[in-house]
Every structure is written in structure tokens, then in C-alpha cells.
């Protein structure tokens, strides 16, 4: 069976079913949405709401069914984005010379992101080392050990594990006074320093257009997987102040969102 990869948030930790129909009397259509968050996670809820809003604007209403069939969709990010994170870390915290890169080594994307970061790091004066995200205890212990040597920082790559353990990661970075760059804004709204990544709410809204085209007769295999088109830079000034960092005016001017 030929399949298109439907990649949303770098993997699926949970799935919820959705059925949609345009007009009463027409047959029920089945849609499966793979997400990296649990059903009751507020982050996942916001993304699900954006997807449903997009469908409703296109004339579809929610019902109930089970997912199935071929798949297509939108990429959560592209690997080239990873090279921006070490640059941002040096820009906001010039004294940092070492960076621990938190990644999920069980995923090809985790290995790929670290490879891109490693290729860029030396050019901006960073020495990077990988840290596997397996459980909360390991993350806390590794960050604590890394913080024992001065001039350190963190780069948190994109994965479901980063979302699952976001509170542990952000609190550990704060406790050990480590500047950190994240892949998703939710870690910055939760107290992290800075993030640069795709607008995932916009991604879920755009996903509705894929569903609309498929429900109107197009084959998933004929729809190419689409990379993100909108990226956001988010800064938390409160966290920067707690770390004793002065945010460069040029970086502040580029920010899409500033949390004060």
C-alpha cells in the first residue's frame, strides 16, 4: 500500500477521531488526526480547536467515527530550522560557550536535528553535546550535571518528549540559571527564555484545507506533504531578567511575541 507520511508534531502519542459532513443526508466522512499530546492537554486542545474551526469555515461539521485510509498532511518543521537555534542562543546569551542539546534519540528527527545543530555550532563558538530525553528523572540529573561547569546553555529540539516533559525542562533550566532556546512557543509561555519554530496553531488550521480537498474527492496520495510557511520568534523578558540577560534591541525588534 502506498502511503504519504502524515507528520504532525514529529510523531503520534495520541489520536482522536473526527467525522465530518457538508450537508444533511450526505455520507459521513472519516478523518484521523495524529497528535503528540494527550486528549486533555490544553496545548493539544488549542490545536484541535484551530483544526475544527478551519473545517467549519469550509462547511464541514463534526460528528463521530473512526479514522482510516491513506494519509497526507503538513510537516511540523524542516531540518534547516535547527541551525537557527545555536545562533539565537549566542545572540541572546553571548557568554555561553557550551550547549546541551536535548533530543529524542529514538527518532530519526532527533538525530537529524542534532546533526544540523552540530554543523552550525562551531561557527558561532559553541561546543554542543547531546542529551537524551527518556524520562523526567534523567533529564533533571543530566541538566544538573551539565550546569556544574560555567558558561552553559540548552537547546531543546522538537519532539513529543519535549512537550511531555516541558515543565521539567523549563524548571530545571531556571533552577540552574541556564539560558535555553526551544523549538515551540508553549515552552516559552510556560517560563522558558526564547523559542523559534513553526506556528503550529496555523498548521492545524491549514490542515483543514487538506481535509476539505480530500472530502471533495481528491486522493491523499496526490496531495504533497507541505512544510510550514509561518514561523514565530517568541521572547520571555521576565525569564531574561531572572537570568541577568540584556536582550539585544535587534532581537527584540524581530520578535513576533514578547512576554513581559
Walk me through this protein's architecture.
The protein has 260 residues and is an alpha/beta fold. The chain has two domains: 14-75 and 200-230, no CATH class; 79-197 and 232-259, Response regulator (Rossmann fold, 3-Layer(aba) Sandwich), CATH 3.40.50.2300. Helices cover 38% and strands 20% of the residues. The chain is built from ten helices and ten strands. It has helices spanning 42-57, 84-92, 108-121, 136-146, 160-164, 166-175, 185-189, 200-215, 237-242, 249-254; strands at residues 14-21, 29-35, 61-62, 98-103, 127-132, 152-156, 180-182, 194-198, 231-236, 257-259. A seven-stranded mixed β-sheet has the order 5-4-6-7-8-9-10, sandwiched between helices. It has a three-stranded antiparallel β-sheet with strand order 2-1-3, covered by helices on one side. Strand 7 (180-182), helix 7 and strand 8 form a beta-alpha-beta unit. Helix 1 packs across helix 8. The longest helix has 16 residues, at 42-57. The model is unreliable at 1-25 (pLDDT under 50).
Amino acid at each position: 500500500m502506498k502511503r504519504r507520511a502524515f507528520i504532525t508534531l514529529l510523531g503520534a502519542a495520541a489520536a482522536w477521531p473526527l467525522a465530518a459532513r457538508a450537508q444533511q443526508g450526505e455520507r459521513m466522512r472519516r478523518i484521523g488526526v495524529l497528535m503528540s499530546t494527550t486528549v486533555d492537554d490544553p496545548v493539544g486542545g488549542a490545536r484541535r480547536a484551530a483544526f475544527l474551526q478551519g473545517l467549519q469555515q469550509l462547511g464541514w461539521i463534526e460528528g463521530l467515527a473512526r479514522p482510516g485510509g491513506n494519509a497526507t498532511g503538513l510537516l511540523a518543521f524542516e531540518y534547516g530550522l535547527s541551525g537557527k537555534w545555536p545562533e539565537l542562543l549566542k545572540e541572546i546569551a553571548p557568554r555561553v560557550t557550551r550547549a546541551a542539546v536535548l533530543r529524542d534519540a529514538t527518532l530519526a528527527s532527533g538525530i537529524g536535528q542534532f546533526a544540523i545543530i552540530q554543523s552550525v555550532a562551531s561557527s558561532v563558538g559553541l561546543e554542543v553535546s547531546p542529551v537524551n530525553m527518556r524520562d523526567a528523572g534523567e533529564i533533571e540529573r543530566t541538566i544538573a550535571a551539565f550546569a556544574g561547569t560555567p558558561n552553559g546553555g540548552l537547546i531543546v529540539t522538537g519532539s513529543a518528549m519535549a512537550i511531555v516533559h516541558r515543565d521539567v525542562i523549563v524548571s530545571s533550566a531556571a533552577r540552574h540559571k541556564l539560558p535555553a532556546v526551544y523549538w515551540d512557543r508553549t515552552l516559552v509561555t510556560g517560563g522558558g527564555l526564547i523559542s523559534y519554530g513553526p506556528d503550529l496553531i496555523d498548521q492545524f488550521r491549514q490542515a483543514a484545507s487538506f481535509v476539505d480537498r480530500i472530502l471533495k474527492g481528491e486522493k491523499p496520495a496526490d496531495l504533497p506533504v507541505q512544510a510550514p510557511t509561518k514561523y514565530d520568534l517568541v521572547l520571555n523578558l521576565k525569564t531574561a531578567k531572572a537570568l541577568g540577560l540584556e536582550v539585544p534591541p535587534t532581537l527584540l525588534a524581530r520578535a513576533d511575541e514578547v512576554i513581559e
